[in-house]
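Hallway conversation turned thread

IA: we were arguing at lunch whether anyone had actually written out Lysophospholipid transporter LplT end to end. Turns out nobody had. So, for the record, here is the sequence (407 residues) and right after it the structure tokens. Reply here if something looks off.
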Amino acid sequence: MAKAPEVQQGLYSRGMMAVMVAQFLSAFGDNALLFATLAVLKQQFYPDWSQPVLQMVFVGAYILFAPFVGQFADSLAKGRVMMIANALKLFGAAVICAGFNPFVGYTLVGIGAAAYSPAKYGILGELTTGDRLVKANGLMESSTIAAILMGSVAGGVLADWHILAALAVCVLVYGGAVAANFLIPRLQPARTGLSWHPGKMVAHFSLACRTLWHMGETRFSLVGTSMFWGAGVTLRFLLVLWVPVALGLTDNATPTYLNAMVAIGIVAGAGAAARLVTLKTVARCMPAGVLIGVGVAFFAVQHSLLPAYVLLMVIGMLGGFFVVPLNALLQDRGKHTVGAGNAIAVQNLGENIAMLLMLGLYSLAVKVGVPVIGIGVGFGVLFAVAISGLWVWKRGQDKKARQRTAP
């Protein structure tokens, strides 16, 4: 306990920087591995509709283990949880690299990612507090997006050169993430003495779900982040099929470059959110959410690289501005109710159910032959309408709250 004040000195403390390095390496490996594994599927002549299924098995791990990973993150020092999770990711990448079924290996990586997420976000609330938590989330998102940018490009470029080399790099990067986790200070567990009986853990997680979904602010955050990440992962796979149709290119690298433009934009948007939005002004992010859908619809009808790059960067900026304040709001409110780890686990459940549904619909649309450009336009319009509905609901809730507190 004596070291607690030392690790809470600020955004650029030793503990925070160690978390950012570990997060960068872990996210780099995740994104490089995705595009390397997609190249494996293409090399082995899997059908196009199986590509989103790869992500669905990853997402399924999040959903299956959601009742357990929050307590796991809160019951141990979060830096050690991150290390264990990264070790499991390393093992999953090694399975793919060794030539075993890519869906099995990617499922193992998904289990590691499910355990990792509550710890990586939950530790932010232990290293900093208050409005600085928004800035800490901005740092986390910037580190993550920089890793997405570099990892996606590295995965696609290396896979074009040599698929086995791309997979080997992923294994090495995960090894670096495991090593970086040793530099994170050993903080006190957030909650101890909880039962590890599976039935009781499920009941405890169900209570956390009910608590957060009952509260207006956390329900708003959960819905918004779930819709955002469900849309984000679907856009990533949409790009893989959109590039050859709209641009006539069949390489592995071009979709990664386009994803990189989104990543660059998110870094800028996250930075703007850290400066312009506080926990009291979270609703400022909502117009950006609506414009994400509009941007995707316009992007889908492009047929040249330059406007595609520009639009994807703008979409990324809007996305960073939209999601960072919502994450900070949930972490702050969750820390004081169900624990930060449980709050992030509940968030992961919502986000990954949204991903599973959107990827399932996307995979079905591809399988039945809907044109990829039509999928993109429809997807963008539906997202804009959905976020508009969430915004209207939020304004109604705020109005009711003001009426209850008025003299």
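OS: looked through it. The chain has 15 helices and no strands.
IA: good, adding that to the notes. Residues 1-8 have pLDDT under 50 and may be disordered.
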